[in-house]
Protein 1
Amino acid sequence: MMVGGRHYRTIWLSDDGRSVEIIDQTRLPHAFEIVRLGSVEDAADAIRRMLVRGAPLIGAAAAYGLALGLNADPSDAGLDRGQAQLLATRPTAVNLAWALDRVAREIRPLPESSRADAAYLAAARIADEDVASCRAIGAHGATLIASAHDAHGRPVNILTHCNAGWLATVDWGTALSPVYTAHDSGVPVHVWVDETRPRNQGASLTAWELLQHGVPHTIIADNVGGHLMQHGMVDLCIVGSDRTTAAGDVCNKIGTYLKALAAHDNGVPFYAALPSSTIDWALEDGVRGIPIEQRDGREVSEISGLGADGTMATVRLTPAGSAVANYAFDVTPARLVTGIVTERGIARASRAGLAKLFPG
Ligand code: MRU
């Protein structure tokens, strides 16, 4: 992704070859700041506080976090401690556990003297593979957008929820990768961006990304999508996923399920775009089996933004005595999902559909 004429990934190794740099997503869209992570504690804190977020990116960040931990303590105890610390940061996106398992499995048989170097290489491979997968998702998903354009000849209206773009991955994004690919190839697109309360990843991150890339878009309040669909103003929905079951149930940012219901009621195709690292092959029933993160209620009761004086301010929205609940994700059952766009192509949202693309 280009920012101010320079290409960035969302995570990279510093020039010292040991620390890791990230873009602080809690500061966007008002400031573009790079933060250096020097320890496993720094990495865990960045994931928990959502300086980095989005399923594929927290997988890559956890892998680099494990490397940072092994750099300080390459013993078995150090490996176990780092893995547990990182795993405890966020429960829903399966990419986190997937990346940690993959690095730990590769590193454990090695002598302590070579573990840190090998872990940095393994983390870099995970990051590179994510870029390749997301790019391929873009190519497959763009065919859906091009077909919609061929069918009616006007700009294709796509609705997306949360941020499943470049910032949620290492580069390109999942749901937004097809949008960038279609836009770059000359297919006219317009994106309806759900604001995505309570943390507003749509209004702050997706809108910022689309603006950087020059993609026409409009930010809408979370409850608007159904109305737009009733009036033929959405051609297709594309969202990302934090965990998709082997049967095609899609867990994504809270509110995704309601968009899928509205899409189903209005005959609007509803796609989830995700790399295979987001598929939890051990789970069938997403509603019963996927752990849903509950976050600090202040994300609901308060809101932060740029004040008229140009400084960041946080204000309370709710009465001081009211209880708040903050469920961060929900599950859209496979029956409401038109298809799953992966790095290997577009699958039906079913065990058979996914197994056809990912046999074994
Ligand atoms: O809580 P977040 O911001 O980490 O949630 C992110 C999402 O829900 C994304 O849609 C999902 O991770 C897919 S990202 C490519």
Protein 2
Amino acid sequence: MHQLTIAEVIRGLRDRQFSSVEITRHLLDRIQQLDGNYNSFITVTDQLAMAQAAAADARLAQGGAPALCGVPIAHKDIFCTSGVRTSCGSRMLDNFVPPYDATVVEKFNAASAVTLGKTNMDEFAMGSSNETSYYGPVKNPWNTDCVPGGSSGGSAAAVAALLVPGATATDTGGSIRQPAALTNTTGLKPTYGRVSRWGMIAFASSLDQAGPIARSAEDVAYLLTVMAGHDEKDSTSLNRPVQDYTLNLNDPIAGLRIGVPKEYFGEGLNADTAARIEDALKEFERLGAELVEVSLPHTELAVPAYYVIAPAEASANLSRFDGVRYGYRCEDPQDLRDLYMRSRGEGFGDEVQRRILVGTYALSAGYYDAYYNKAQQVRRLIKQDFVQAFEKVDVIMGPTSPSPAFALGAKKADPVAMYLEDIYTIATNLAGLPGMSLPCGLVNSMPVGLQIIGNYLDEARMLNVAHQFQQVTDWHRQHANLASAV
Ligand code: GLN
């Protein structure tokens, strides 16, 4: 049962091949037996899951249940879950039990999906390797000596290890796409504002966006259909009609114009990764698409601009964690200053503190214009690059990540090397555009992801394009050589 895609689980439940209680029990057992190898979950919600599964079975029996009814999923531990600890991968929130659900969680609950638990992540979603988590690193199911990518590494690894068919995730600079690429899963970061951020712990508010990770574009479409939509509780959420993203998957893609940015194939891209991307582009030509060279001339400025904007916003967002109102408080504070200093010093890990320092500096009087304002101007130029490219093409394609998964510890001591992991994903967030990653081959037995960048609110077309690719290739069906359950 653990091999099934979401689409197959939906059919199996409706055909009474198995019940939600049965598949939920099976996956909970697998998590218990196998997740010691991967560390992809921070919290497993056994009792909640079994109760939700029983309720879903009752709803299915009545008929007319929503598509996701009874389907087991997991939530990144950045989404607030009522009554269930929500840590954001941090010691700061190790004891935080929210009294409410994030809008995304509420929507899945309303659809009677079953929550198996909360997945591991880089602390406050800052990282590209899942090594900054207070709960220890996540291991890549394809090779447990390697990282799964980050920050949504727990969601990606849980899906890749066949512990759950799909999971929620978030992407501020690549955190859905890069782990999807490194674990052979399919992930989509929607247009900024497409999915509500309410109840999703904020990292960089002008960049953060939630989306799904699953084992096929079709499954991602099922999950996005539940997640997307306007939310009056999030003033940045877009008030546009929602669509059923599963409806256009089989549209023909002949005549599709694919932009290939030359800046995404330069120095820094692993040669074998480049070859897998070229193979994928040829496959699209066979499907009737046309390749068009485009230029995104400000690409090299994306990482530097991001590492001003994201830390600046993070330093403001994380000021609420002061040892008074939420989460961790140090022992025996001498006075208020000592309470602040030690609560934040002990509650936050190194990477989070580094970002707060950088962000506070960039926003301080006298430096604001030189750094934050300048970075926002660069951001505008990056956005314009894409707007111009989309005058000529329907989608843009390139690598998701410059190389396959690297060894645990390999980049931990070198923040800049780690930051360059997101060289092809960050510009999309700066521009607010949707981006996805899907499996397109292996290099030394490790997965490679193809990135598809779409125009604003063009998620349906991206999923259509990805699904057509997955109809003629089977990379997404390949699984890691997993440890077996007893
Ligand atoms: N790796 C990037 C960072 O560390 C992006 C993280 C994310 O998308 N949440 O900030």
Protein 3
Amino acid sequence: MKVLFIGMGYVGTTTGLVLAEHGHTVTGFDIDQKKIDSLNQGNVYFYEPGLQKILSSHLNKNVFFTTNLKKAVEQNDLIFITVGTPSLANGSADLSYVKDAAKMIGKYINSEKTVVLKSTVPIGTTEKVQKWIEEAAQNNSPVKTVMNPEFLREGSALEDALHPDRIVIGTHDRKAANQLRMLYQNWSCPVIETTPKAAEMIKYASNSFLAAKISFINEMAKLCDKLQVNIQDVAHGMGLDPRIGPHFLKAGLGYGGSCFPKDVKELIYTADSWESPLEILNKVEEINRNQGGYFIEKIKKKLGSLKGKKAALFGLAFKPHTDDTRESVSYLIMERLLKEHAEIKVHDPVVELSSDWTNQGVKQFKDPYKAAKSADVILICTDWPEYEELDWAKVRQLVGSPNIFDGRNAMNSSNIKKLGFYYEGIGYF
Ligand code: UDX
């Protein structure tokens, strides 16, 4: 099938390339010329394992990129909207990019089209998109809309898009639903057909539930800190109950990224505006927001004042295997360390620190051992596997004082302690 994607971010690029891998012909549009130039040169402009290879093998065969939307809309009858929906100051999702995309489709529509929303959008948006397209249309070409939420995770986007747990098709139109079933016919997972609003809600409820799992285990971990109970054992014991499941029970510095923080806030906003507040999500959000501060307090409790102390911070990305730093707790921790007048040296395998930080005296090292040299404390903020694999005996020789605070419970604590380090995770020792 021929498919157009409007918005070449993580979701649009990954989904488009995966559809191409399944034999469909994909055109990617973005208003950002730089992104299109980069993709046209065969370069995925963000770090996501595996995508580069797929792009190279399909580019200009059945994958094309353009900034000419008129031609692209005219030539494709199946159009995906995959633009961003960032948070506004009041927590609600900014729908301006979705609205712009809908209006542009309306402007250029020349025949019957199926428009599929993949961006995470507040409940009721799919119906609005239909209206926005029709309002902008210069002719009476029929438009069908579908909500088809995306559940892929950054860092494992390709794997998730190739092997999803489920496909959700939210539409009132039988023909459109069948078109999507055809598009996804090679996938073997369950397909759910429902209304657009239910499809929108499935996405928000799923992300909020996973965020709640994380905040639940983090709250438990803080109690475990007091009681000297190992949260890893607790999570393992809980997770073996199939009703609970083992996933998203990893205690640490909380959730970041481009989805959970904004989606939880948006659902809270929607619930408030319908006067049906989601008290539980307010707590989930609050617990998550305070996790970085809790970590700093733990460090201060052990080291006292951080003034003049050398802190080596490992990991800037919000999670491993990505260069995405949106809502990454590492930055909040750096802010707190600067306020405490600590000296900060950072390392991340892929993220480069911006001049906003280096101008404030934060130093970045490409070599983690150099970042650790003379440090009074090492803070692990992202669970990149590289950190677990470091030669910690060598690190022990390099540091000024052997203190490790592991914000992701990523290390084997007993091995680390045997080397003479003082070690504290979150609910883990
Ligand atoms: C998430 C959803 O998982 C995905 O389905 C949706 O499409 C987009 O949002 P993503 O943001 O890429 O994906 O990352 P995810 O792996 O879900 O992790 C989110 C955050 O939670 C990360 O900061 C991670 O470190 C943290 N996390 C995750 C925990 O702190 N503990 C866990 O047990 C799991």
